[in-house]
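TICKET: design request
STATUS: open
ATTACHED STRUCTURE:
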């Protein structure tokens, strides 16, 4: 094995479900890579809804409200992605890092390589939908160092900064996976609610590179920014989308908002349309008119496990200059509470990224 850094490191340890007091920036033991693993120095780590939702226990079956209304004083034993979260846990689903050591028998030529980590990992292989997630099922990137399976790191040749690269994994991976599953093709009209967030802004870019027409929904304050990202048409949240673009007017809806607006999304779909989702920030419990579903031959597509080509494709898009980073702000890792508060205010467009001390 290559020489592994010894001793301790600084990390943000999430001690359980609850408020910001659960984020403990402290000294912890340095991870040591086992065979088949690599150790990364974390160069930058993006903030995602999933980091906050896991801390709040929002994935629990007893939570019915949107993410903004989750109670910080509630205990949720089943509040993780797949049952109980293994607290205490170092969260952080997005990681741009540099390989500093490999486990016994590993490829030492990787040492020194700047890489991105595939956040969503198939637990067995791509014949199974079972997944584990960096920073949700095992320790993640809110630390100076992290160890991950060697097969989940992807070298990248790009002039993007570390912080810009850290905007990519979770948001763009989730967005590309939904586009892939929905089979979006050149010339199709796609509706994207929640278009200014990390996933929404990624969707706009990734849809445009496929030649789709993008109709976005966002707040009035962010309308111009969403147009700059590349949306063809932008509706404000206060608008009636049926009145604005008409029933049966879009081929695909890619929606991580859900909540009370879900039924309207199905009205907007043409016959044979597809609805894809990997989230529900406005509320997980929705009202479905089955007549819209079956009379219009609509396909509902749930998306969590990333398909095999997704992450490699993203790397190629960056290296070819087909997409650009959408970095809203950076904060030192020890200012994670302030960064998450700003994230929750939702005034930004793009991603907020944390930088560990070097």
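STATUS: resolved
RESOLUTION: sequence designed for all positions
ATTACHED SEQUENCE:
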């Amino acid at each position: 094995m290559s020489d592994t850094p010894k001793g301790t490191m600084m990390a943000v340890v999430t001690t359980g479900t609850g408020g910001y007091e659960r984020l403990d920036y402290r000294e912890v033991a340095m991870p040591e890579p086992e065979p088949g693993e690599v150790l990364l120095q974390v160069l930058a780590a993006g903030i995602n809804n999933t980091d906050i939702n896991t801390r709040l226990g929002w994935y629990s079956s007893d939570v019915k409200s949107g993410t903004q209304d989750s109670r910080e004083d509630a205990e949720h034993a089943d509040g993780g992605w797949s049952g109980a979260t293994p607290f205490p846990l170092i969260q952080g689903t997005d990681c741009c890092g540099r390989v500093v050591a490999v486990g016994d028998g590993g490829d030492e030529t990787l040492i020194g390589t700047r890489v991105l980590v595939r956040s969503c990992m198939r637990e067995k292989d791509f014949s199974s939908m079972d997944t584990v997630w960096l920073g949700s099922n095992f320790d993640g990137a809110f630390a100076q160092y992290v160890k991950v399976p060697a097969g989940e790191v992807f070298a990248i040749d790009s002039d993007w900064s570390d912080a810009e690269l850290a905007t990519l994994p979770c948001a763009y991976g989730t967005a590309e996976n939904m586009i892939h599953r929905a089979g979006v093709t050149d010339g199709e009209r796609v509706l994207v609610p929640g278009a200014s967030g990390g996933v929404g802004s990624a969707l706009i870019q990734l849809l445009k590179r496929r030649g789709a027409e993008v109709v976005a929904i966002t707040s009035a304050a962010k309308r111009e920014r969403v147009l700059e990202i590349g949306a063809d048409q932008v509706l404000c949240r206060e608008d009636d989308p049926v009145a604005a673009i008409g029933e049966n007017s879009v081929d695909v809806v890619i929606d991580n908002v859900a909540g009370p607006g879900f039924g309207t999304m199905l009205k907007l779909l043409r016959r044979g349309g597809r609805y894809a989702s990997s989230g529900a920030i406005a509320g997980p419990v929705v009202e479905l008119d089955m007549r819209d579903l079956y009379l219009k031959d609509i396909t509902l597509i749930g998306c969590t496990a990333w398909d095999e080509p997704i992450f490699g494709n993203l790397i190629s898009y960056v290296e070819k200059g087909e997409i650009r980073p959408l970095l809203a702000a950076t904060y030192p890792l020890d200012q994670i509470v302030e960064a998450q508060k700003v994230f929750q205010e939702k005034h930004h467009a793009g991603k907020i990224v944390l930088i560990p001390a070097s």
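CLOSING REMARK: The longest strand covers residues 37-46. The mean pLDDT is 93.
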